[in-house]
Design brief:
The chain is an alpha+beta fold. It is built from 76 helices and 28 strands. The strands form 11 sheets. A 6-stranded antiparallel sheet has the order 22-21-23-24-25-28. The N terminus is likely disordered.
Length: 1893
């Protein structure tokens, strides 16, 4: 680095004279002290000069930076230390000088003492976790660091935690941004008063040193900057320079952290203009400085906004005085003049981007504010530092330094002004930047700190023209990507729009500007200035018009568009961010009457801009066909300000409306959008690709709808309320292209629409009219009513979670105006309309979230289909709402059938919009309604129930909103306005309903049936004769109607207007008359709307005369018309409701309805079926048949599936299992029969073709997690809490085994214990069987199947072909018969001695197994392979415990331990005891029987040498005891009292030939029980103290000679004590030992309890084993009688045992040999061991038998406690803070998820941990996401979260940041799945993790 302290040596200059060269070697501290003293003298000039000289030399920027970066030679020149050394040296000097000779750290501490810390001001960068409290915030950007947040009191506030996107700073202590009540404890004290004054000499040195230091930094920045060449991006060079400067900037950053005192010194230095001038203008002296100054000037050149072509002369003039206060020169005129097109500097690069003929347009207005355009001029260090910060694209360190200074008020103001001064330059740099995203974030990081402060924003707005600068810069930015608009008149259009394909829009590069603009507009004072400044408004509207009509879509009519452009994202984002959000910001300040003037201004300039736009695109009165743009921001500005004016400011609407002609133009484009929406949904735009659907959806989507579709509809409502209704209605039908369809004729020709689109377009048009007439969002609803309506609409579509409701309810897009319209009322409205459904857990494992569902009364009264239709993005949501409505009506018994959408009463209209209702009372609409009713009645094609529904809805709306109660008399007298086509007499719907229309003249194709009927009728019927003058037949043409009205409006002055029809030349529409082969026919109709309705009623109900006026029976109906029975129902109900309303409104109607009903209605004429119709009918019929066939097939399939489901186990709910017998237990069947689920055959399992059970083998360490104390382990949430695994079952067993292995013979140790507590193999089955050869072919097919499966076939994994349960092996079923089993189970009367002998003999026989091992049958092969699978399931370390690797003892141990593991786990699944009894769920699906066969077969391969067989030690007295222990050198065998009895049981049973005889089983159990009991006595004797022992010894000895002494525990205990006293077991009790044993007063009861508890685990396992081997059911019992019940079940208790006197465990004893002899033999072994190792001897005797059930760690109530501790915790392996921290929920270990830092042999840490902790199963909580991830072997899945927020929802990835609380039920389910090993079955979405987690 060039900051070479060695410049004196290596630089070209001679050393300065003042400080001799050796001075460098002097102690820096001494020099510093000397200088400080010199400077402290009153006359300090000499000192100052000396210091200057030293600094000059130390901080000289002599060596050019490039050299420093170039490596060795430069380093050599720099005095050997290399660049690093030099810069270190310079910094050391600075530190010493600042401290003035003292220690730097003490100096820092001293300065900190004077810190008036009123503000926190902590600056953070991206990804930092911060908090935002909306209750305390004044500005919505307010944020707090975690520390300040937790130290303040925010209980009950609306806060959330968030990850910072761009970085930010803590606002604690800043009362401009947040309320003081929210300050934390540290920043509450107003601390200026009690901080002492800073002593002058403390910071004196800093004031001298720092200016030089900063100047030095600036020189480096100048040096390092090279203007990038045109084509080479220069980021690399910049980064290099920045890396070298890192220490310097960090040093400055550290200074800012010293507190207020140091900050104010820095502020002085940075803003002092004199300093800057002195240092930077000293150009003459050395070449180097001059060179850097030149570079600076070059860099400055490009800082203005002016384009290079303008060739300004850059002189380095003195900055003019007015540079900072910009003069606004004729801004209004500036923006208005669009200069000539001018090519831009980016032209060349852009030509290559394939924009083709879309030439870039550049607007250059010569009168833009010059000072914004000018080159920058710097007057202080701060300004130049910011300049370089921008040039270097905002390096993070620099940004942090500049922001760290902000708590200094003086600095804040200076910096804000500097920032504004450089604003244009910042944006210019941003536009060119390659890393615009990062840069945008850093810019906003700064600007949000400055502009969120209203006071500051107001100040710079006034002093620095902030608003002008922003608007100009925005305009400048957008000007670079304008293209010619192709809307309307492609050739002559003068309008320009932004090109959405440009990077600027596509990458959202304009975002920082817009964000700042919105931010400052949120301040009332700033917004007022904006709204008052006409020039600014003009410019702004000019800016908005760039977006008007962008992203134009042209409908593809021929082939599909080949490249779907995705530019629409950019277009919608741009309109929302750049136009709508500033609009909402401005609207939020126009809430009161006093602000009327602002609205008038905006509306005025908006209308001017719209007028300009219409002129620019050459718009007359017809929109160009087949094109649509969704972007009309000018229309929307206008609409929203109108709405505000009427709603809040009491402005008269007419005073801000333009003339009729302008209104007609205004309505065209929004209406075009509505029609296009219908077209898009009718698939007419299908050739434009999917993106056009995307646009239609985005337009109505919740984030956009209230800035897009809502203003559009409102604007149309305003236009409709002021324009002629007939004109409006006919325009609508013409836009929707359905004019030709509205004819009475049964056939018509549509020139503009294909037949298949007619129906949906007609539905679209009618639906639009219904929405237009019934929506009241801007027409008089209050904010709370709107919120309620929105919420009801969303809830009716689907039940929703709280957050998705928040998300779907249209928010005010400007974040500054509150989250949601009246967010405080959000909760109260929600509780009024919805019920909360708590999160339930479904047995299928799918986790529900807390949902809100509409209350019943909401469905009853508030369900509004219109609102639902308006708000649905997907059409299916409308259907969903209707289905839910139907279900509600069925459930509540209100209506059984398929209901129609209900009619909902509307809120009253605001008086200003009363004109809207005229649409319902205009003849055009009535004619359309009449025509449609007639067509529906006559079954014309292309009409649907939906059309009828909408027609009825419109009629009902008209009746509800009829103008005035018409008197019946006036009906006949029609006013003079009666026009020539008098379909209806007046315009009131009520009276028009009863008007009969007799004849209608229609134009029909010559083929139509009407034509033929016509001629025939004229001869026969004389009534037609009188009609020959066809004047009386009605003719109707919508288009003509519209043209006529248009003409009237345009030619108001012309009195002859009625006759003139303006000739249309440009019309693309053919007038209805000009279509080919049309002929005129006259139809006889003779109907009125009322008569049509009544006939429709008949048609819908399918009965003649079904309608009977209800008031004839019950006159009351007319008095209280609101009858609940009419509110829900189908079409019939709707017709009845309408007729009732019509009757209510006028007596005439009532009379006419009665008359119509009296006439018997003639049957509807039969339909003539044409060939074409027949064809469609056939098609329909065929379709129907196909559908029926399909239904039948599906039904059949479903019933099959059902019957399967009834027999199969439902994995998901282990509680409610239907037992599925694997083997049938009827004695007459000789062999077990199995069904193969693949080939479907059933039969026995044979040696040649064995059947197998589908099983899943998995290693499990669940057993090892049992612990002996009840207190659950908690997840550590502080440094003190740590978890030590020494008290787990696995650890205890490990210690025991290694202890035994230390002192005893290895092979004998391996028989004395069981392993498998960790990494034991658990076998489970779904209960289905298959042939093993079928399974092999099934696996082959899976292997060839290319579909991506969630499992790995190569590892043998598959899913059960029947129930799809995950499995990985097949367990062969042993061919056996059931009858044998029954014979075997018959008890024989042999004595126990005989049985013992038999057992011994049977064990001795090698391989006495029906299958001879020598002949390799298929069965034995399979048994071997499954054994291999079992071994491979677990890792080697969990199988090999022997000291000699690979010894057979190891396999032997492993095999019986597999049996042990499975029995123990089943016990745990039953809750740890057998009290519940019964054949448990696990029992029916258990494969233990088959597993036993496989294990026994393999165990028998290893015969135990009869010498060592423990059976002999148990059942025989050995003579010469002493001789056995003779040879000392060999390690002894394990004494029998140290053996684990359950292990012995399994060894004995597995060594017997299978199937086992029941007698032998009982015999083994009896013998082992004696050993177990003795072990209990020994343990008891060790546990108690000396006095107790001698007392017992005595009492027992007295009873020794009674008859049943062998069955009395007292006698036995005393004997044991006396035997063991011979050895040293009791002697060693030193003092230290006594302390550990708690003195318990042992009573006979407590001793009995102890012995029973000691024996129970063995009895439980034995009973389970007996249950599986012999199929006997387990009895159920109370907990206290478990011992006696199990012992009698096992046959230990003699049957004649009396139950009167209390039960004694000793009565179960049945000694095979005299008790005292065998006990003394056992005790002798112990004594001889304790001779040498008394301590260990004792430890081994006390076995812990009471293990509690395994549990996961207990989690804290609130998630925040976990998050705060772990998200910053460093990993113990790599000592870094992990990017994705995770914690194991089994043992609490903290790991890095996916962290490469902790990878070992290609395994990432989580995978590694899952193998070590759970033998392949890991359960991890991801700290940053709050979700749980499960690792199972080589797969993983996201399980979900056990933490839910107050509304019962997960918050994955903590996106919402609301407080989360533990959901106990979910955690229980997780634990249950872990214990029951069902992760694989219940969770469906698994994927491979490739060891990368």
């Amino acid at each position: 680095m060039a900051a070479a302290a060695a410049a004196a040596v290596g630089g070209p200059q001679p050393p300065q004279a003042e400080v001799p060269a050796p001075g460098l070697a002097l102690d820096k501290a001494a020099t510093a002290a000397h200088l400080k003293a010199a400077l402290s003298r009153p006359d300090n000039r000499a000192g100052a000069e000396e210091l200057q000289a030293l600094l000059e030399r130390v901080l000289s920027a002599e060596r050019p930076l490039a050299a420093a970066a170039d490596g060795e030679e430069a380093a050599a020149a720099g005095g050997g230390g290399g660049p690093g050394a030099a810069e270190e040296e310079a910094l050391e000097w600075c530190k010493c000088l600042l401290a003035g000779g003292g220690g730097y750290d003490e100096f820092c501490a001293a300065v900190r003492a004077y810190d008036p810390a009123a503000l926190c001001g902590l600056v953070w960068t991206a990804n930092f976790v911060a908090y935002r409290c909306r209750t305390c915030g004044i500005s919505p950007c307010m944020s707090l660091c975690a520390e300040c947040f937790h130290q303040g009191d925010h209980t009950g506030h609306d806060f959330n935690m968030f990850r910072s996107q761009a970085g930010g700073a803590c606002d604690c202590g800043d009362s401009n941004v947040m309320r003081e009540s929210g300050f934390c404890k540290r920043h509450q004290i107003k601390s200026s008063s009690n901080i002492p004054c800073v002593p002058k000499d403390l910071l004196m040195m800093s004031e001298f040193v720092l200016p030089r230091f900063i100047f030095c930094l600036i020189q480096y920045l100048r040096e390092g900057y090279n203007e990038p060449a045109a084509d080479v991006p220069s980021e690399k060079d910049l980064n290099k320079v920045l890396q070298l400067l890192e220490p310097q900037i960090s040093f400055l950053e550290d200074l800012t952290k010293m507190g207020g005192a140091m900050r104010s010194v820095l502020t002085q230095v940075l803003t002092n203009q004199q300093n800057y001038k002195d240092l930077t203008s000293g150009l003459g002296e050395n070449a180097c400085a001059r060179k850097s100054h030149e570079k600076y000037l070059i860099a400055l050149k490009s800082s203005g906004l002016t384009y290079p072509e303008d060739k300004l002369v850059y002189g380095i003039q003195e900055p003019s005085a007015g540079a900072s206060t910009l003069a606004v020169q004729g801004f209004a005129s500036a923006a208005g003049t669009l200069g000539q097109l001018d090519s831009s500097d980016e032209e060349d690069q852009d030509g290559s981007q394939g924009l083709g003929k879309r030439k870039r347009v550049k607007l250059s207005s010569n009168t833009k504010d010059q000072s914004i355009m000018d080159v920058l001029k710097h007057k202080s260090f701060l300004e130049e530092l910011l300049f370089w910060t921008i040039k270097y694209e905002f390096p993070q360190k620099m940004v942090t330094f500049l922001l760290n200074m902000l708590p200094d008020q003086e600095y804040k103001v200076a910096f804000t002004k500097t920032f504004v001064q450089h604003y244009a330059f910042i944006m210019k740099t941003l536009k060119k930047s390659h890393e615009s995203d990062t840069m945008s974030n850093r810019i906003v990081h700064i600007s949000v700190q400055l502009f969120s402060n209203e006071e500051l924003a107001r100040q710079v707005t006034e002093e620095c023209q902030l608003l002008d600068i922003m608007v100009t810069v925005l305009l400048y930015m957008m000007e670079s990507c304008l293209i010619k608009s192709e809307l309307q008149d492609e050739e002559n259009s003068l309008h320009v729009v932004v090109n959405c394909g440009e990077a600027l829009l596509k990458n959202n590069t304009y975002w920082p500007l817009v964000s700042d603009f919105i931010n400052i507009l949120s301040h009332q004072s700033v917004a007022k200035r904006f709204l008052e400044d006409h020039g600014l408004l003009v410019t702004w509207m000019n800016f908005v018009s760039f977006f008007q009509g962008m992203n134009l879509n042209k409908r593809e009519l021929n082939e599909h568009v080949e490249f779907e452009s995705q530019t629409y994202y950019a277009a919608f984002a741009a309109e929302l961010e750049a136009c709508a959000q500033p609009m909402w910001g401005l609207l939020s300040h126009c809430k009161v009457r006093e602000t009327q003037e602002y609205t008038r201004n905006v509306v005025r300039y908006c209308l001017e801009a719209l007028q300009d736009w219409f002129d620019a695109i050459n718009f007359v009165d017809e929109p160009a066909p087949n094109q649509v743009t969704f972007h009309l921001p000018l229309h929307r500005y206008y609409a929203m300000f109108l709405s505000k004016a009427v709603k809040c400011q009491e402005l008269d609407l007419d005073s801000v409306l333009p003339d009729q002609e302008m209104l007609m133009k205004l309505m065209i484009h929004p209406l075009q959008i509505q029609a296009s929406l219908a077209e898009i949904h009718s698939n007419m735009w299908v050739r434009n690709g999917l993106q056009i659907k995307g646009q239609a959806m985005t337009y109505v989507q919740s984030h956009f709808c209230n800035s897009m579709i809502d203003p559009d509809i409102y604007l149309l409502q305003v236009c409709a309320s002021r324009l002629d209704p007939d004109y409006f209605i006919s325009s609508v039908f013409e836009r929707f292209k359905v004019v030709d369809l509205l004819t009475m004729a049964s056939q018509h020709q549509n020139t503009v629409l294909d037949a298949e689109h007619e129906r949906s377009m007609l539905e679209g048009a009618l639906t639009f009219l219904v929405i237009l007439l019934s929506l009241r969002l801007h027409l008089g609803m209050s904010d709370d009513e709107i919120l309620r309506a929105e919420m009801v609409a969303q809830l009716c579509m689907n039940d929703r979670t709280h957050s998705s409701l928040m998300h779907h309810i249209p928010e005010n897009p400007n974040p500054k105006s509150g989250i949601i319209p009246g967010s405080y009322s959000f909760e109260s409205v929600l509780s009024a309309v919805a019920d909360f459904k708590a999160p339930v857990f479904e047995p299928g494992g799918s986790m529900q979230q807390g949902m809100y569902t509409p209350k019943a009364e909401v469905w009853d009264h508030e369900f509004d289909p219109v609102m639902v239709i308006l708000r649905t993005v997907y059409r299916r949501d409308v259907q969903s709402a209707m289905d839910r409505y139907t279900a509600f009506l069925k459930q509540s018994g209100k209506f059984p059938g398929n209901p129609w959408p209900p009619y909902k009463k509307r809120t009253p209209l605001h008086p200003s919009y009363k004109g809207l209702m005229r649409l319902l009372h205009c003849k055009t609409l009535h004619i359309v309604l009449f025509t449609l009713l007639y067509k529906i009645l006559m079954d014309h094609q292309n009409l649907s129930e939906h059309v009828l529904c909408m027609v009825l809805y419109l009629i009902e709306l008209g009746l509800e909103n009829s103008a005035e109660e018409e008197s019946d008399e006036e009906a006949s007298a029609c006013g003079p306005e009666r026009c020539h086509d008098s379909w209806f007499p007046g315009s009131n719907l009520v009276s028009n309903m009863r008007h009969f229309i007799n004849y209608v003249r229609v134009r029909v194709p010559e083929t139509a049936p009407e034509v033929k009927r016509d001629s025939l009728a004229s001869t026969s019927s004389d009534s037609l004769g009188s009609l020959q003058n066809s004047g009386t037949a009605q003719v109707f043409s919508l288009v003509a109607e519209r043209r006529k009205k248009f003409q009237e409006i345009i030619n108001r002055s012309n009195s002859e207007a009625n006759q003139v029809v303006r000739p249309k030349t440009s019309s693309k529409w053919s007038a209805p008359g000009s279509a080919p082969q049309l002929t005129t026919a006259i139809l006889e109709i003779k109907e009125s709307i009322l008569s049509l309705l009544i006939k429709l009623h008949h048609k819908l109900s399918g009965k003649q005369n079904s309608y009977y006026p209800p008031w004839l029976d019950d006159i009351e109906i007319l008095i209280q018309p609101e009858i609940p029975k009419y509110s829900h129902g189908d079409g019939i109900t709707a017709v009845e409701r309408i007729l009732l309303k019509a009757a209510l409104q006028s007596r005439m109607n009532k009379r006419i309805i009665e008359e119509i009903c009296r006439k018997v209605t003639p049957p509807v004429p039969p339909k003539k079926i044409t060939a074409a119709e027949k064809k469609t009918l056939d098609k329909e019929e065929r379709r129907q048949k196909a559908r029926e066939r399909q239904q039948k097939l599906l039904a059949e399939f479903a019933s099959r599936q059902k019957s399967f489901m009834e027999t199969a186990m439902d994995v998901d709910s282990p509680e409610s299992d239907i037992p599925m017998e694997i083997t049938t237990a009827e004695p007459q069947v000789s062999e077990a029969v199995y069904d193969c689920v693949i080939c479907g055959q059933s039969g026995p399992s044979s040696e040649d073709r064995p059947t197998g059970l589908v099983v899943l083998l998995q290693a499990s360490s669940v057993l090892g997690q049992c612990r002996d104390n009840i207190e659950p382990k908690k997840l550590p949430i502080s440094e003190e809490e740590q978890i030590y695994p020494w008290d787990t079952c696995a650890a205890v067993h490990d210690v025991r085994l290694s202890l035994l292995q230390r002192y005893f013979k290895d092979s004998s140790c391996l028989l004395a214990v069981s392993i498998g507590w960790e990494g034991g193999v658990y076998v489970q089955t779904c209960g289905h069987t298959l042939h093993i050869d079928c399974h092999k072919s099934y696996m082959e097919s899976l292997r060839n199947d290319q579909v991506l499966q969630g499992f790995s076939v190569d590892k043998g994994e598959f899913t059960c072909p029947l129930c799809r349960q995950f499995a990985n092996s097949v367990l062969p079923c042993y061919p056996g018969s059931n009858v044998e089993n029954h014979l075997w189970q018959r008890p024989s009367n042999k004595s126990i001695q005989d049985l013992i002998k038999e057992v011994e003999e049977l064990q001795g026989r090698p391989g006495a197994f029906p299958v001879s091992i020598s002949s390799e049958t298929n069965l034995s092969k399979e048994m071997e392979s499954v054994m291999k699978d079992i071994k491979n399931t677990t890792q080697k370390k969990y199988r090999d415990y022997s000291k000699t690797p690979g010894s057979p003892d190891n396999d032997f141990l492993f095999m019986y331990s597999v049996a042990r593991t499975n029995l123990e786990l089943e016990l745990i699944h039953r809750g740890g005891n057998l009290c519940s009894g019964g054949a448990s769920t696990a029992g029916k699906r258990s494969c233990l029987n088959q597993l036993f066969h496989v294990l026994a077969l393999h165990m028998r391969l290893y015969s135990i040498d009869s010498e060592y067989n423990p059976w002999r030690k148990l059942t025989q007295l050995l003579e010469e005891m002493s001789s056995q222990l003779g040879n000392e050198e060999q390690q002894p065998e394990v004494p029998i009292l140290y053996h684990d009895v359950t292990s012995l049981l399994l060894i004995q049973i597995l060594m017997m030939p299978q199937p086992l005889h029941k007698d032998h089983f009982t015999c083994i159990v009896k013998v082992l029980f004696t050993l177990l009991y003795t072990q209990g006595l020994v343990a008891l004797s060790v546990k108690c103290n000396e006095e107790d022992r001698s007392a017992w010894k005595h009492t027992g000895a007295l009873k020794k000679n009674t008859c049943d002494a062998e069955k009395s525990y007292e006698v036995l205990l005393s004997f044991v004590i006396s035997e063991l006293s011979k050895g040293k077991l009791y002697h060693e009790e030193g003092t230290q030992e006594c302390a550990t044993i708690i003195p318990v007063a042992w009573s006979p009861e407590s001793m009995e309890k102890y012995l029973q508890d000691f024996c129970l685990p063995f009895l439980r396992i034995t009973s389970l084993l007996q249950h599986h081997l012999f199929g006997e059911d387990l009895p159920s019992c109370q907990e206290e009688e478990e011992f006696s019940v199990l012992s009698s079940c096992l046959g230990l208790l003699p049957t004649f045992y009396q139950t009167e006197h209390p039960f004694i465990s000793a009565s179960c004893l049945d000694w095979p040999v005299p008790a005292f002899d065998i006990i003394s033999q056992w005790c002798f072994e112990i004594n001889s061991f304790t001779e040498r190792h008394a301590e260990q001897g004792k430890a081994l005797l006390i076995q812990e038998s009471k293990w509690k059930l395994p549990h996961l760690l207990q989690l804290p109530e609130n998630y925040n406690t976990i998050f705060q501790y772990y998200h910053r915790k460093t990993c113990s392996v790599c000592t870094k803070v992990p990017k994705d921290p995770a914690v194991c929920l089994v043992c609490g270990t903290f790991v890095c998820l996916k962290g490469l830092c902790c990878k070992q042999q290609s395994y990432c840490e989580c995978v590694l941990h899952s193998q070590n902790c759970g033998a392949g199963t890991g359960i991890f909580l991801l700290i940053n996401a709050s979700v749980i991830i499960i690792i199972r072997g080589h797969r993983f899945c996201l399980w979900g979260s056990v933490y839910l927020d107050a509304h019962g929802e997960e918050d994955r990835d903590l996106r919402r940041g609301k407080p989360l609380y533990i959901c106990k039920e979910r955690y229980k389910v997780l634990e249950q799945q872990w214990i029951s090993h069902t992760f694989d079955h219940i969770n469906k979405r698994w994927g491979p993790h490739y060891n990368g987690l």
